[in-house]
Amino acid sequence: MEGFHYITAITKPQIESLINKGILQLGLFEEKLCEIKDDEVRYILRRNPVRAEEMSKTRVSKLQNIEKYIVKKNSYLKEHPKSSVSKALETTRERLTRLKLDGWVQIKEEDRTLKIERAEEALKEASYLDGCYAIKTDLEENEADTNLVHERYKDLTEVEKAFRDCKTVNLEVRPVYVRKEDSTRGHVFVVMLAYMIIRRLRRAWKNFDLTVEEGLAQLTTICSMEVTIKGQKASCQKIPRPRQQSHELLEALQIKLPEVLPSRNIRVVTRKKLAVRRKSQ
């Protein structure tokens, strides 16, 4: 479409296909960004060493899981001579498939004992793209250089995280208990405003070893005390000095609490109490 461009990632099979065609080379995937151009398409390549290590550790963890499982199976087969070896072999292979290890791990039976066999070449083939990713775009170099394309693609993860937070994690935009269009739009609008607050908190508290949820839980310890003067109807809400961590969280947000607040006698209904209040009306 004229006037529109794209920045997207390609899948592992697509990367393998480009390597087989000679357009990309495995040696180009390094921690430092590398760019290859084929016709009008630019490919930005990188190997993330942290992600590669995570994938390797996950693979080892899964292997240890299946090894422990086989130890239990062999113990059961030894203690129950009449038990079915073929059934034990079948369930073990099913577990192997669920763990996605069947590409380089095989389970065999010998004298009523299950054994693991690792195919090192298959493992090498399965792991050679660990941590590797490729981004492609049709943008010209004068419109966006290699680093800018990479940064803009990384921004998409923030967009995906925003949708995930709004839909399920924190804000739960669904279920929607409204029927009219204006009410639905209002509901979604409030959710988006809430997400903007969460994003602001996350940025302000990035140097603290806690999540936004944990920070908000800490701020709930801030309270007020109603102060009244004997013989007078006037009263106010006195705010004690917050705890040290609460004080630091507020300071990071550049928020300074007042020492006192006028008493308004306004009833605040929390989300948990709202349903109870509706039933009582």
Automatic annotation (TrEMBL):
Domain of life: Bacteria
InterPro entries documented for this protein: RNaseH-like_sf (IPR012337)
Species, as recorded: Kuenenia stuttgartiensis
Protein name stated in the entry: Transposase IS4-like domain-containing protein
